[in-house]
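Lesson 9: reading folded outputs for more than one chain in a single document. The general rule is that every protein is listed as its sequence immediately followed by its structure tokens, and records are never interleaved. Here is the first one.
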Amino acid sequence: MSVPVFGQQEPKQSFADKLFFGGNLGLQFGNTTYIDVSPLVGYKVTEKFHAGLGATYIYESSKIRFTSGPTFRYETSHYGGRLFGRYYVWENLFAHAEYEYLNLGYPDPLYDPVTGQIEKIGITRQNINSIFIGGGYAQPIGPNAAFLIMALWNVNEGVYSPYVNPLFRFGIVAGF
């Protein structure tokens, strides 16, 4: 004897339905100007696992005052990209892992060989690799959007790292 079984079938989502967009915007003004523009695009591999990539551009301008000399202003840019994975462990709580590559420009004092005094500030470039782990919370703010807050730890923080542990991020993601 056979018994027919009927079930509800989830409507199949298209590739575009599984995409989401977002990012971070950071602004600081005053003695130090810091502007961070970091867009991202992600894909919902499953309902619980999301992965994606993003770009980062940071503009920095600041003054440096040396104890034995004048004050110098410098400007620099940092740029790069990142890959991330996010797994929702319970409702809106998620674990997050990320790899980021940045080309970092940092101030480098240039000395006058005759006087031994600093004559100007140059910019030296350094490639930085960061690995972040942590977690966060996604607060829905509409049918296809959420506000995210994350706490991350840079597990290979180094001398030239532009981040101080822990790192807190706030952002918005939206799908269409």
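And here is the second record, again sequence then tokens.
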Amino acid sequence: MKTGKQLQRDVLDELQYEPSVDASKIGVIAHNGIVSLTGTVASYAEQNAATHAAERIAGVKAVANETKVELPFMHQRDDADIAQAVLNALKWHIWVPQDTIKVSVERGWVTLEGTANSKFQRTSADDAVRYLTGVKGVINLISVKQPAINPSEVKLKIESALRRATELEAAHINVEIQGNKVVLRGNVRSSAERSDAERAAWAAPGVGQVEDNLTIAA
């Protein structure tokens, strides 16, 4: 099991290795597998990239990103400009449903509301706007429609997806179907594998909720 200092060093090295992150402005605190990121970033996209970089490190159980987005002067936009850019981005994104999503912007923070047919569509809407200039954060309130599903069929699809992604760990993950909710139990090796398992569960048709009870093995 890595010590806090070892974990801190590994996360710092990964941040420095990640080309979309300016590691010189980010501080790292690690304790009992929990990593906290502090400091400043130049965009919401960089903030997300820092989180994902930390999650890739073996031994990281959770990441608390407390960095503050401080936009460079050249990237600052008023809310009206950001709102128009968001609407255009959603319109041109092939996976985002049309006419079901509402947008509001306040002080650079974008709020998305409405409905989508799947978690994939919901995430696609988030992805479409997070890299836009001037965006400081995204609040995704889009709800996923929940049609009736075939529990045994959905369970089989998720288990197959887990084996394709990480055959070694799939045997240690138990998948339960409770109505439209998927419950994941078992062990994984890292926060990144945990995210991959969640993503596989959400990708199944008709899933409206995923309860992640996975444990990251030391």
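What the second record shows: The chain has a mean pLDDT of 89.
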